[in-house]
Structures are given as C-alpha cells and as structure tokens.
User: Which sequence fits this backbone?
C-alpha cells in the first residue's frame, strides 16, 4: 500500500466531516424553526443534540461499512480528526464569525449546567470505533 492509499481514509473522513457540518446546520435550522417553538429552548437543544448524535452514528455506520475500515488505530484516528475539526470549528466560527464570547462558547461544555454538547463531541470521537464493532458483530 503506497502513501496515497494510506491517506485515502483520512481524506474521505474529512469529506464526511464536511457532511456532518452541513447536517448540523440543517439540524440547527430544524431546532430553531420547529423544535424550540414546540418544546422550549432547553428541551429543544437536548432533542437537537440527540438528533445530531444519531445522524453522526448513521452516517458513520455507512461510511465505515462502505470503506471497510477495520483497523482500530485508523478508526480512532478518524474519530480524533473529527473531534479536533468539530471543536476548532465550534470555537473559531463561534467566536470570529458568530461573534460569541469565549465564555459563551465554553458554557456549552458545562455538563453540570445541563449542557449536552459533549455528547456530540463524544459521538464524533467514538462513532467510528462503535460502528465498526457493531458491523463486525452483524457479520
């Protein structure tokens, strides 16, 4: 296997991460325009987070299955890439484009305050490993 073949799972993983961004934006629109008006802000955020986690797992399932990635090391590296990209996007876009304060951005990580954003980060990190394990069990 040459270097270009070794880098393919990582290049396609970055492409999948961009799909996650698009789906997260659509999920955010669903939350703002439909979920929150029905259930309120906090419950809307929780429901939206759970929807996004489910979406991450579904997309990851198909990605891992299609690419037939079985190496735990590569699966963990993909999850780590997704985690780093997600956190970087959250903070950089949130602060420099959305003009949110660092304190506001950090607040989303306070699970003691009922914030559940960490579930999305955990999903991005562990979904490749979990999906691969579940796919192996099915076969």
Assistant:
């Amino acid at each position: 296997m040459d270097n270009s073949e070794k880098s393919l799972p990582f290049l396609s993983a970055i492409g999948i991460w961009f799909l996650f961004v698009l789906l997260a934006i659509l999920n955010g629109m669903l939350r703002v325009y439909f979920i929150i008006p029905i259930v309120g802000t906090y419950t809307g955020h929780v429901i939206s987070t759970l929807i996004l986690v489910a979406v991450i797992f579904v997309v990851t399932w198909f990605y891992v299955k299609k690419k037939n990635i079985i190496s735990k090391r590569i699966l963990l590296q993909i999850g780590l890439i997704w985690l780093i990209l997600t956190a970087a996007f959250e903070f950089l876009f949130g602060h420099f484009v959305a003009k949110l304060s660092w304190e506001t951005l950090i607040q989303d990580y306070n699970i003691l305050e009922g914030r559940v954003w960490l579930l999305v980060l955990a999903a991005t990190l562990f979904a490749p490993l979990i999906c691969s394990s579940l796919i192996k069990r099915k076969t």
